[in-house]
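Course assignment 3, question 2. Fill in each field.
Student: A.L.
Task: Predict the tertiary structure for the chain below.
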Amino acid sequence: MTKESKKASTAGAPKQALAISEAAAGAGVLGLLGFAAIFAVAMVFFVTESYFLAMMLISLALLVYVSGSEFGKLLVSSLTIFFSSRHLIRNAVYLQDTLVELRKFLHLKKDESGWVKVGPIEPGAKAKLPDNPLVRDIQAVLKREKGTEYAQYLAHQYYVDCRELYDHFHAHLEFVAGAMPLFGLIGTIVGLIGMFDSLGANTSVETLSPQLALALKTTLYGAIFASIYTIIASRFDQRIKALEYDYEILSHALEVLVENKAAIEVQA
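Answer field:
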């Protein structure tokens, strides 16, 4: 390598790292600004004693804070995960569709001990699989006799992106679910402080009821919104487990196909 090429490579690396850092910083600044704006609106509703709306906006402000520019994508993904059985990333959908046909061909199932069992398969057997990029890649691996290790690496490529996305969004929702009871507790403390400040010789139930309502309602709404975000986060956790199970099954299926030198026939 010449001195000029060394200089070019060393000069290019910091610029690339700087670009990534600037993108990450931009998302963080956007999240912080969004949090401040929504939180300010929430405080307006808090002062007007609309505690439900105030706590709802606080939860959204926290979600904007952790997700930044991904806020819209997070909302759409949460709705998709909650009301649909399809994965969010196309590669994971290919994995899911391919595995349906492989289960039928190989008679895959788990026994009581958790081991994946495969039905009888003849060497050189042909499997009919749906036409998608994963199937075409598997077909190429079997034709070129790349081996089991390469086949499992291929399966991992179709699994890892969706797995990381689910982990990413699950962490965001778990953060909000954990923070909301704390904001409810803050409202409770503010209400109790107001009650103690109002105590005196002429204290009545009417003078204490607004502070008591603040203390109880913020605690209640904090718990409600924490439960909602926990439920949504649990859907991502369920998808992670389902995706891991599909990846495990696919890896074992590819191992069987490679060992038996099976052929893939792409369905029209």
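Instructor remarks: The chain has one domain: 70-266. The beta strands are 109-110, 116-117, 126-129, 263-266.
Grade: pending
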